[in-house]
Amino acid sequence: QKEVEQDPGPLSVPEGAIVSLNCTYSNSAFQYFMWYRQYSRKGPELLMYTYSSGNKEDGRFTAQVDKSSKYISLFIRDSQPSDSATYLCAMSARGGNAGKSTFGDGTTLTVKP
Amino acid sequence: ETGVTQSPTHLIKTRGQQVTLRCSSQSGHNTVSWYQQALGQGPQFIFQYYREEENGRGNFPPRFSGLQFPNYSSELNVNALELDDSALYLCASSLDAGETQYFGPGTRLLVL
Questions:
Q1: Which of B79, B55, B47, B91 is nearest to A44 (CA)?
Q2: Searching chain B, which residue's CA lies closest to the CA of residue A95?
Q3: Hey, are the CB atoms on B42 and A41 less than 8 Å from each other?
């Protein structure tokens, strides 16, 4: 069983919808939680980074971490066609949000105009 | 723009051959991590180099090896290529070992 499981999708929503992307994990040592966005034929780019449990908001994006349930989520409000991409959750036990991260397999999101 | 560049962009090799992939880190970054991303999967950590020394390794066999140069650029070498090595190979650099990493566009390797 993988250490990080991500809802596989694909997900298709109309423009303006609220999107919820989710991951679960099994390693209690994970303390740093990241969300990356990956466009086709590009490398991942960091969207959100949180440490330990709680919520973090950045514009239209909100990251939520529940360490007791080993569950993390990314919410996208007022989704736009430009948000269409693959979203990857990632976690690490130490070293902040740098290398040695364990990634989920990604959820592909399509936002239709 | 992230500033991390990788070469080549695409590569086709046959089983048993050897390959070298290259990464130029963003200016001022001393840490480089390599990841393998198979189709439909998330990136898997191969290893990290910090100031020219290996600083952690994932669950990859010894035929995956690396190098970091004094200018902090890096190479990933894979010997005795197998069909399952076909993937997108990503390089990420960071200012220091505990800082935000920035990914390059990747090298797509196909092993026939």
A1: B91
A2: B98
A3: no
Quote the minimal CA–CA distance from A66 to chain B in Å: 22
Percent helix, strand and coil across chain A, each to the nearest 5 = 5, 55, 45
Residue written as tokens 């196909």?
A: B110
Strand partners, B75: B22, B67
Tokens 């040592």 correspond to A29
A95 band by pLDDT with thresholds 50, 70 and 90: low
B5 to chain A: closest CA residue: A43
pLDDT at residue A101 is higher than 80: yes
Q: What is the pLDDT of residues B49-75, one digit of tens each?
A: 999 999 889 999 999 999 999 999 999
A106 contacts B104? CB cut-off 8 A: no
User: In a mutagenesis test of the B interface, which of A6, A7, A97, A101 is the best target, namely the one with the most B β-carbons within 10 Å?
Assistant: A101
Residue A106, phi-psi category: left (phi > 0), alpha (psi -120 to 50), beta (remainder):
left
